[in-house]
């Protein structure tokens, strides 16, 4: 197999324009317009509109390349495009080769006859994806929502590029992945799949190859495979194959199993597969890193309904994490390094799962490689979200091809836990207010698409992995898809229907795959897309960066319920973030306390694709909002949480650990001037994968008067083998009514070789203390903290977690904000 890469220098121009610009493929139109000063940063102020206008034109990319004579001696020469976004005519030497119309596909086509030795020319003409979608929708209206460019559902392109309730309308285009020529002779792999059968301390691995014989008489072929373990052990297998495929088998004794984050290591075995001809020449190769593990999703009936739990290597785990959306609306800005940085933040917040939501696209290999290495399970949606589709024959063909292209590409990844048909379609058809209507043909098409066509397409290429029809679902067939007792649930009464977040405790979901709460991004992030005069949440520019209708008003509604009116923009932004953190914590602590019945918590959403007010816990610049620090705590493998029922507080330890852990829970009930009224402690053996009660504190008699409820608080923390958890303060009234005293914070800083140790003390109880700097970014071991007098917080700030070199002195003067300041 020989390849000629067509990546690198190309020229681009607006269709019909005289002037060409030099560009580098892979690329996108926005990238090139920006680089050549033809467009202003679409993320700044309201520039999005101008960008959308620019994307209403067509663009042309072209280059020449040299083909050596012997390249064309091969039996087969193919043009392989790993990602064309989206509607593009591909011409070779002046003749139209084909039209691409699906961003998710790998396009490959034979080009031997169209090429000649020496110089050749390729031209890719992109038709505006915005205009194209709108035209289809005008000609045949299928579905409409104000969040997107019309017709988004008619084009096989990441839906959210057309706009979403957190994303700009920026339907960029381009050759966004590699493009190359491949020459092959005699034979090549049509497919290489790996299956595992686990036994007693051993795994049988079957490497199944499918061969494609090319032209010339080929004789016998040899498939050789080698497997190398993380410990260096290796296995070799070889087989001569006369037919169209060959299976090789490895028997691995004492396998090193792959575990999700928090339950063990994530070792990978390197598999190398080689195809050679009679003369021994290597014809084709494949390299795959595989993790050895079993992974099933249990859905069997139980006393409450039916389960939904991930079972890895026989252990039922509590899936914790969040939903992931594309990292940038301009795809060239997503690099493996940036993705890794994001995924590492997920691991730092103790995630074991991430859901790749169906309104985006299948990520690059590097995303899934990184999940494998970090032990992050991936819930992978197929690419359908919140829409009605018209299931024509050509649409069916296109989605089956895109699904199989990607399932084949990705199925060897240990991290991929399941394939899920779609996001919220079954729910939409069952009455959730997405306006799907009630057309019986389209309803029937839905069933055909997600309960017949796609599961079959997936099963044909990945028979061992779990397929779930939709998220949310109770198993399909429009059978109450968002039933709290079966399957997974998207719970949006809090936020979209304005219910208080205390509602979370009324439900016992089996697996909550979406629930969320919005906040504004960090002031520094807002600073990057606004002018000072824009910094009012109702300004035009702030509303351009708020895509969820009346959500700014919604944030204020929740704020009114909980906090005093923040009179400064900075405190309003901060209050929105604290509300978000508190809301999600309230839900998660409840789901985790009901472990066994509930086995999954994936909040909406971890990241942003541009700077915006949204449900994310990390903003566009990867700055941690309070929610991300909270997640680190509420997703900890050992969590001590408290639930208050009218002054009767139950403490409990939720464990995702595989062994018993000795934990001591300490609590103090404090009153005016922070005086300790009552205190206690309890040592428990926190049982593995369970919830262990750690006592109740009866505070009721201290809370009879309103004045008491506004001054008395309970603080608690836990000591484990690993150290002390941060202090949590539980109030018995809304924060807006609590009589916070000025906390008089003091911060001392000690420098070590790789880190600074920050000690933060308070004269009076301080809640939601936030440390930040306008001049540099950093990630602390904890932030948005509660501090009580006598128990200063000791925080670690690794030098590698600071955006630039700083002096200890600069850190002593970090800005602080806390509940007391929200007024
Ligand atoms: C969910 C998602 C997204 C959406 C989010 C916030 O249901 O599936 O479609 O962005 O809600 O509204």
What is the fold's blueprint, element by element?
Elements: E1 2-5, E2 8-14, E3 21-25, H1 29-35, H2 48-54, E4 59-67, E5 76-81, E6 84-85, E7 88-92, E8 95-100, E9 107-110, E10 118-126, H3 129-139, E11 174-175, E12 179-184, E13 187-199, E14 202-213, E15 221-228, E16 234-241, E17 245-253, E18 269-276, E19 282-290, E20 295-298, E21 309-312, E22 315-317, E23 319-324, H4 336-348, E24 353-356, H5 365-374, E25 377-381, H6 393-410, E26 416-420, H7 425-429, H8 440-461, E27 466-468, E28 489-490, H9 493-496, E29 512-514, H10 523-529, H11 540-544, H12 551-562, H13 569-593, E30 600-603, H14 626-634, E31 638-645, E32 648-655, E33 661-670, E34 676-686, E35 691-698, H15 706-709, E36 713-720, E37 723-724, E38 728-731, E39 745-751, E40 755-762, E41 766-772, E42 785-787, E43 793-798, H16 808-812, E44 815-817
Parallel strand pairs: 23-24, 23-30, 24-25, 25-26, 26-27, 28-29
Antiparallel strand pairs: 1-12, 2-3, 2-4, 4-10, 5-9, 5-12, 6-11, 7-8, 7-10, 13-14, 14-17, 15-16, 15-18, 18-19, 20-21, 21-22, 31-32, 32-35, 33-34, 33-36, 36-37, 36-38, 39-40, 40-43, 41-42, 41-44
The chain binds beta-D-mannopyranose.
């Amino acid at each position: 197999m020989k390849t000629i890469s067509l990546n690198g220098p190309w020229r681009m121009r607006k269709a019909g324009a005289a002037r060409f610009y030099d560009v580098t493929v892979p690329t996108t139109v926005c990238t090139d317009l920006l680089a050549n000063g033809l467009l202003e940063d679409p993320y700044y102020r309201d520039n999005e509109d101008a960008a959308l206008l620019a994307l209403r034109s067509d663009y042309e990319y072209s280059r020449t390349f040299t083909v050596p004579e012997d390249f064309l001696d091969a039996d087969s020469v193919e043009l392989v495009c790993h990602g064309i976004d989206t509607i593009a005519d591909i011409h070779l030497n002046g003749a139209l080769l084909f039209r691409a119309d699906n961003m998710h596909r790998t396009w490959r086509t034979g080009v031997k006859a169209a090429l000649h030795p020496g110089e050749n020319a390729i031209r890719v003409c992109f038709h505006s994806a915005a205009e194209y979608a709108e035209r289809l929708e005008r000609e045949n209206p299928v579905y409409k929502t104000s969040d997107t460019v019309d017709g988004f559902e008619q084009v096989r392109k990441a839906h959210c590029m057309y706009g979403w309730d957190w994303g700009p309308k920026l339907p960029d285009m381009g050759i966004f992945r590699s493009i190359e020529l491949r020459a092959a002779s005699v034979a090549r792999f049509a497919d290489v799949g790996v299956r595992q059968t686990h036994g007693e301390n051993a795994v049988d691995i079957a490497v199944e190859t499918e061969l494609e014989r090319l032209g010339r008489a080929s004789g016998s072929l040899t498939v050789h495979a080698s497997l190398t373990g993380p410990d260096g052990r290796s296995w070799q297998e070889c087989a001569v194959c006369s037919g169209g495929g060959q299976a090789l088998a490895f028997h691995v004794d004492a396998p090193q199993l792959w575990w999700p984050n928090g339950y063990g290591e994530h070792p990978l075995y390197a598999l190398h597969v080689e195809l050679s001809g009679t003369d021994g020449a290597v014809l084709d190769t494949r390299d795959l890193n595989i993790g050895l593990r079993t992974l099933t999703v249990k859905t069997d009936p139980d006393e409450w309904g039916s389960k939904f739990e991930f079972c890895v290597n026989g252990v039922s785990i509590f899936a914790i994490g969040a939903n992931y959306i594309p990292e940038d609306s301009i795809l060239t800005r997503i690099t493996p390094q940036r993705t890794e940085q994001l995924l590492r933040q997920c691991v730092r917040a103790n995630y074991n799962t991430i859901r790749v939501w169906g309104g985006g696209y299948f990520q690059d290999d590097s995303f899934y490689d990184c999940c494998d290495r970090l032990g992050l399970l991936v819930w992978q949606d197929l690419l359908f979200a919140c829409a009605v589709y018209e299931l024509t024959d050509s649409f069916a063909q296109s989605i089956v091809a895109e699904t199989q292209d990607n399932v084949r590409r990705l199925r060897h990844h240990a991290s991929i836990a399941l394939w899920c048909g779609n996001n919220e379609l079954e729910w939409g058809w069952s009455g959730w207010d997405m306006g799907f209507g009630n057309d019986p043909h389209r309803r029937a098409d839905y069933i055909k698409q997600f309960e017949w066509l796609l599961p079959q397409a997936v099963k044909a290429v990945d028979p061992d992995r779990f397929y779930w029809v939709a998220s949310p679902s109770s198993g399909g067939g429009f059978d109450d898809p968002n039933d709290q007792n079966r399957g997974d649930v998207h719970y949006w009464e809090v936020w979209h229907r304005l219910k208080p977040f205390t509602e979370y405790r009324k439900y016992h979901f089996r697996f909550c795959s979406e629930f969320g709460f919005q906040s504004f991004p960090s002031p520094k992030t807002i600073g990057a897309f606004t002018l000072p005069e824009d910094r009012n949440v109702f300004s035009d520019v702030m509303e351009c960066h708020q895509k969820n209708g009346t959500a700014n008003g919604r944030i204020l509604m929740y704020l009114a319920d909980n906090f005093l009116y923040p009179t400064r923009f900075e405190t309003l932004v901060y209050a929105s973030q604290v509300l978000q953190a508190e809301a999600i914590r309230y839900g998660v602590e409840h789901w985790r306390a009901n472990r066994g019945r509930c086995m999954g918590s994936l909040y909406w959403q971890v990241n942003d694709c541009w700077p915006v007010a949204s449900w994310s816990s990390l903003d566009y610049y990867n700055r941690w909002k309070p929610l991300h620090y909270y997640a680190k705590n509420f997703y900890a493998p050992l969590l001590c949480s408290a639930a208050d029922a009218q002054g009767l507080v139950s403490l409990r330890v939720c464990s995702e650990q595989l062994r018993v852990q000795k934990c001591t829970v300490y609590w103090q009930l404090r009153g005016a001037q922070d005086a300790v009224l009552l205190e206690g402690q309890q040592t428990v053996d926190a049982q593995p994968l369970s919830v262990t009660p750690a006592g109740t504190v009866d505070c009721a008699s201290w809370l009879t008067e309103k004045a008491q409820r506004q001054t008395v608080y309970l603080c608690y923390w836990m000591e484990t083998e690993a150290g002390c958890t941060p202090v949590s303060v539980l109030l018995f009234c809304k924060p807006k009514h609590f009589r916070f005293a000025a906390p008089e914070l003091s911060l001392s800083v000690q420098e070590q070789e790789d880190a600074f140790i920050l000690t933060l003390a308070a004269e009076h109880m301080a809640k939601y203390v936030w440390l930040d700097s306008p001049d540099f970014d950093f990630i602390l071991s904890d932030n948005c903290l509660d501090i009580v007098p006598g128990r200063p917080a000791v925080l670690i700030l690794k030098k590698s977690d600071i955006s630039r070199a700083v002096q200890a002195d600069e850190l002593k003067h970090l800005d602080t904000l806390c509940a007391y300041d929200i007024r």
